[in-house]
Design brief:
Layout lengths: L17 E4 L3 H14 L3 E4 L3 H20 L5 H10 E4 L10 E4 L5 H12 L7 E4 L6 H5 L8 E6 L8 E6 L5 H13 L3 E6 L6 H17 L4 H6 L10 H8 L1 H15 L7 H8 L7 E2 L5 E2 L2 H6 L2
Parallel strand pairs: 1-2, 1-4, 2-3, 4-5, 5-6, 7-8
Antiparallel strand pairs: 6-7, 9-10
The protein binds 3-hydroxybutanoyl-coenzyme A.
Length: about 300
């Protein structure tokens, strides 16, 4: 059955090589997924060789883990590793049919990335952004071929989360959308078409939860109580455990985008900012007996 809003699948273009801009955690997860599921070459780029090498090493480590767990046969593991390469030069994208960016969440950075990529790739190459909350329409504005840009938003951990938000900007063409839906199917993800609005749909809902928790402790409820209050609701992770997994600065960035778009419906938390300013990566730390606690230093930052 055709997903709601998906154009005719016949319009999809073949994808025989993928480019990933960025070699951080999200980019590495994406590169692994593309190589493993599509079995096509995937090249990852970043601003220096050290980052590129770290990204490739991360992927090799994840493949080794899958193999050790018996989730990937040796031949598939070797093939997946051999399909992945890294470069500091975006010229490596010259023959790519699909390039996705997973770089720093700053509109000007993303626009610069797409301008550089567009100077290298063919006019048919599809461009995608994995942004959490920025405007795809804005990113497309200065492109020579804005019709080829689509939002392709994955969730952490990419290997296990089944959902993919596909974001259509006003100029996104049917060919681009059809290719995005075909890719989602081949990646074995469930794709939904969402409007290009701040934080799309899922992060809007998640940040509603996160925002209520940060509001509660901004208002004086102890942080452990506020975060744990949702545990009996059957969520797989409390908001702050999830926040630590995706990165508190990423969560806060989404909070800021939503605040900019919707005002006080989404507030920016002073306590969350204090944790980030102090380099604290999460609320919880493991205890010796296998439990978890909020360390005194973290607790002290929460007014
Ligand atoms: N990478 C790869 N595989 C992972 C993984 C990771 N980081 N974390 C867990 N897994 C795998 C495990 O290896 C295990 O696989 P196996 O059955 O082959 O051994 C499987 O997932 C289940 O893991 P566990 O049994 O260890 O733990 P759980 O049952 O608690 O499941 C979870 C882990 C799937 C991550 C679950 O806790 C969950 O669904 N959490 C919520 C995740 C979520 O909401 N993500 C959205 C974040 S928002 C976002 O990303 C948007 C961005 O824009 C900010």
């Amino acid at each position: 059955k055709r997903p709601a809003g998906a154009p005719d699948a016949k319009l999809a273009r073949p994808v025989t090589k993928v480019g990933v801009v960025g070699a951080g955690l999200m980019a590495g997860q994406l590169a692994l997924l593309f190589a493993k599921q599509l079995k096509v070459p995937v090249v990852m780029t970043d601003i220096d060789q050290e980052r590129v090498d770290r990204g490739v090493a991360y992927i090799h480590g994840e493949v080794d883990k899958l193999q050790a767990k018996g989730r990937m046969a040796e031949a598939a593991a070797n093939r997946t590793k051999s399909l992945i390469s890294g470069s500091v030069d975006k010229a490596a994208f010259v023959d790519a049919d699909f390039v996705i960016e997973a770089v720093f969440e700053e509109l000007s950075v993303k626009k610069q990335v797409f301008a550089e990529v567009e100077a290298i790739v063919s006019p048919e190459c599809i461009l995608a952004t994995n942004t959490s909350s920025l405007s795809v329409t804005e990113m497309a504005r200065d492109l020579k071929h804005p019709e080829r840009l689509v939002g392709f938003h994955f969730f952490n951990p990419v290997a296990v989360m089944p959902l993919l938000e596909i974001v259509k900007a006003p100029k996104t063409s049917d060919e681009t959308l059809a290719t995005a839906f075909a890719l989602a199917k081949n990646l074995k993800k469930t794709a939904v078409l969402v409007k290009d609005a701040a934080a799309f749909v899922v992060n809007r809902i998640l940040l509603r939860l996160m925002g209520e928790v940060t509001d509660a402790f901004d208002e004086g409820t102890p942080a452990d109580v506020a975060d744990n209050a949702l545990r009996p609701m059957g969520l797989p992770m409390t908001p702050f455990t999830l926040g630590a997994m995706v990165g508190l600065p990423v969560a806060q960035h989404v909070q800021e985008s939503l605040h900019a778009a919707f005002g006080d419906r989404f507030r920016v938390s002073a306590n969350l900012q204090a944790l980030i300013d102090n380099g604290i990566k999460g609320l919880w730390a493991p205890t010796a007996d296998g439990g978890q606690e909020i360390p005194a230093g973290t607790q002290a930052l929460l007014s």
